[in-house]
Design goal:
2 copies of one chain form a homodimer. Chain A has about 325 residues and is α/β, with parallel strands linked by helices. In chain A, about 45% of the residues lie in helices and about 20% in strands. The first copy, chain A, is elongated. Chain A binds a DNA duplex (16 and 16 nucleotides) through helix 1, helix 2 and helix 4.
Chain lengths: ~325, ~325
DNA sequence: CTGTTAGCGCGTTCAG
DNA sequence: CTGAACGCGCTAACAG
């Protein structure tokens, strides 16, 4: 392994000089700068990130913390895009990214979690899908022990940013489109989970829209479950004009129930899963660019690591119509 | 951050003694061992894996290298299970696991790739889905620079193991079941990619089976693409009795084509994707436990890291019938 | 059996 | 503008 020492020797300068050049610090003459860069290139020098992490405190090691739902595998698609987007961007920004699942932290106290991350020299954490009622995780946020970026919640502090689309507005957009296309009056809304921030925001959206359009609104919680949405549809859909769902998975459940009931009702979903394309029908849905969101989250975390203030970042969304041909390859 | 030094001070012993105790080295009296362990517990000491990685050469940092197919998102499901299984097991075995995608290595020479991993103190690599024609990656394998576990290929050397199910046998099993259930004579086999090892093995399997059952076999390459399988089905399915596909995604394409053609032919797939459940019909398929495979791969890598010989590990598979009710939650 | 010492590769003062 | 020297937290030889 070629180290900084070898580069220094090759260039005929001291180790610290090499370090300065490679990290873009001032106070090095252009002549020696060039010498060092050439030597580094010649020796194919790649800085050892492990050593850098040990010695410096701004080593750029971050963690992606998320839920791994092994039961409902549909969520895999979202998680995967999240991970991929984050890894990609982290690589670009020369940050080390490790992936951690909630299940690994299960049963740990806040102190233990902090030490767990510290032991890995983690200085920043991106959290996706933090439950609004997870006491330990929210404690962790409040300690300020790490720079954090929270996806899909609305909370920011000095060292904590949040990021995500405007769920309320997105729900309004997709539902309005569907309702106007079908001239529907009575809305059946299948909401997500009660302790989910996006779920709550989407609910607010549909409430606002129903009022604006003077539609009757009937709400039940489907807990983001396909099965529950299916059952709710059997029970309540017949006497409503349109089924608006807080997630694609629930929309699929609703749609399949409608088919079995042999009645037609327009349905719209939320997320833009590929899975939608396999469910047999077309429908409007909100497309979230998950890879884009996690990519933006990494950038936001970098902003915090460089001393930036925590803030709220709102990302754009779009309304699409999922079709079979969109997804085959 | 509480370091090994603090523990030493607290226990009233030397740093190295603490290190020995915590790493289970011999040559420490039970009395001091107990003292050290108590001190560590009291201070909530968590060893810094970064520092350990720097100092020692057997630090247990490994990489999971895989393809990220951003076009055909169906693969997401498999990738996700892979990642999850590996991360989980790595955590259990106290190994640091980083995820790397092929795309990040694109255009790099073997030397650059080696340095890339060395810079991260990586000592072992698990590769999933290495193309049989990827020169650079195979060069990397041959250099022996890292301990490696290759999933779904058949190659092993001193420091390289391979792992996976018996694709040939699995293809035989699922196809035989489907054929016997339907008393089919003429088989249409939609194969995977030509330079894919699992694809080739599965093809061998169906050839063997066709001979054994004295069935006529007609083969075309679908390249693991849903669309291609769909088109091939339109073209060739009418005059055969059963469609055997080298992957679930292709089976879905075939099935949808059959529905549009309004003819019935038994179809069987390979992989056990959840996606299958959404495709509208039931069918036999091979269920691979992807999380289990990657988990086993981590264990095998650990075996190599501890000086074990490279070998071939064959994992079990099972034949299942995918149903809608199996997947909703 | 225990403690001292020397690095691992790099960042960072602080003299020169 | 440059380089010697120290330390990050830990492991591993070596003395005692």
């Amino acid at each position: 392994m070629v180290s900084i020492k070898d580069v220094a020797k090759q260039a005929g300068v001291a180790i610290s000089t090499v370090s300065k050049v490679l990290n873009g610090y001032p106070g090095v003459s252009d002549a020696t700068k060039k010498k060092v860069q050439e030597a580094a290139k010649e020796l194919h020098f790649v800085p050892n990130s492990i050593a850098a992490a040990l010695s410096s405190k701004q080593a750029g090691r971050i963690a992606l913390l998320m839920n791994l739902n092994t039961r409902t595998k549909a969520i895999d698609e979202i998680s995967m895009q999240y991970i991929a987007g984050a890894i990609q961007k982290a690589q670009e920004m020369r940050l080390d990214l490790i992936t951690v699942f909630f299940s690994m932290l299960k049963g740990k106290t806040v102190g233990e979690i902090i030490r767990y991350f510290q032991a890995q020299s983690i200085e920043g954490i991106i959290v996706y899908g933090i439950p609004t009622n997870d006491k330990v995780l929210w404690e962790l946020v409040e300690t300020g022990a790490f720079k954090m970026v929270l996806a899909d919640v609305s909370f920011h502090a000095a060292s904590v940013s949040c990021i995500g689309i405007n769920h309320r507005q997105a729900q309004i957009d997709v539902a309005r489109k569907t309702i106007l296309e079908n001239k529907s009056g009575k809305i059946f809304y299948i909401a997500g989970k009660k302790n989910s921030y996006p779920g709550a925001e989407r609910l607010k959206g549909i409430e606002e829209l129903a009022e604006e359009l003077s539609c009757k609104l009937f709400v039940r919680y489907g807990d983001f479950s396909e099965l529950k949405a299916r059952n709710l549809t059997f029970r309540y859909a017949r006497s409503r004009d349109v089924i608006v769902c807080g997630s694609d998975l629930m929309a699929i459940g609703a749609m399949r129930a409608l088919i079995e009931m042999d009645i037609f009702r327009p349905v719209c979903g939320f997320d833009g899963l590929v899975l939608m394309g396999y469910a047999g029908k077309q429908m409007n849905t909100v497309q979230q660019n998950f890879a884009g969101i996690s990519s933006a989250a990494v950038e936001e975390l970098q902003h915090l690591l460089q001393g930036g203030e925590g803030r709220e970042v709102v990302l754009p969304h779009s309304i699409i119509r999922m079709k079979y041909l969109d997804i085959i390859a």
